[in-house]
Amino acid sequence: MTPLPALPIDAVLPAIVAAVRERGVCVLVAPPGAGKTTRVPGALLDIVQGTIVVLQPRRLAARLAATRIAKERGVELGGEVGYVVRFDRRVSAATRIELVTEGVLTRRLLGDPELRGVGCVIIDEFHERHLDGDLALAMVERLRARRPALNLVVMSATLDAEPVATFLGDAPIVRSEGRTFPLTIEHAAAPDDRHLGKQVSAAVRRVAQEGLEGDVLVFLPGTGEIRRCAEDLEDAANVFGLAVVPLHGDLPAEEQDAAVRPAPGGRRKVILATNVAETSVTIDGVTCVIDSGLARIARHSPWSGVPSLEIEPVSRASCAQRAGRAGRTR
User: Fold this and answer.
1) Cβ neighbours of residue 115 under 8 Å, at least 6 residues apart?
2) What integer pLDDT is reported at residue 5 of this predicted model?
């Protein structure tokens, strides 16, 4: 098997394994691009009895991360490494590393409070602090009081680790420093009143004119903005020979895979994505991220009981995650 490329997380894998072996729990803080999602589960296989369940906040991230782990380990997806998300599953009796979404793990905990057959739960991207993720952490920690052999690892790129470690009984904290390649971050010089598609088109034109090599990943609030932005990018795409592709959770798996793969004919891609590409997804070739700083957030009115999707600014932690999509492979 071809040797794996070195990643920053590799330097601290022995410390993570030692913490889990000795204490059964660990809090890991590693910057975007360190390789924690793909390398940590495999490093724990030899010391964990049973399945390693890796919690991911999004379906796309769970599926793509499972695909990448399987590729790095040289196994078929659905064998040693698999995933379970809503409406889709690739697992078998041989599966030892299983990536799941928060809702899947919550339902599993409710249906089987003992998590029989599970030897370790890894909660990835914990900084996002979804209700299901917090609930899973609390339920797994309570279960560990009855099942001391159940291991728990909490991972994030932008986590205030000390409160979480305290909640987990003063768990060991492991930190991975640095990312694979350096990043340069620029901000808009002044507010721009044009609609989002025009702003993105201007930014893409600037990147193309400056001759930056590699693909461009654009973060937008939702599918409507992606469609309108794709229309605004038509002229720039024709002038500079760019392939404009969408990436969001409602796309069929084949179209999601097409957004991640290199474009036909070696063309540069402009990937228009929602926040599904924010965490745990490595798209080879991305060297530039254009971030709108916005996302569609699910809200619920306690007065009317009506759910809604609101466009809101993302957190600084999310901005750091988005920036980290660039500089991962070069």
Assistant:
1) 53, 108, 109, 121, 140, 143, 147, 150
2) 80
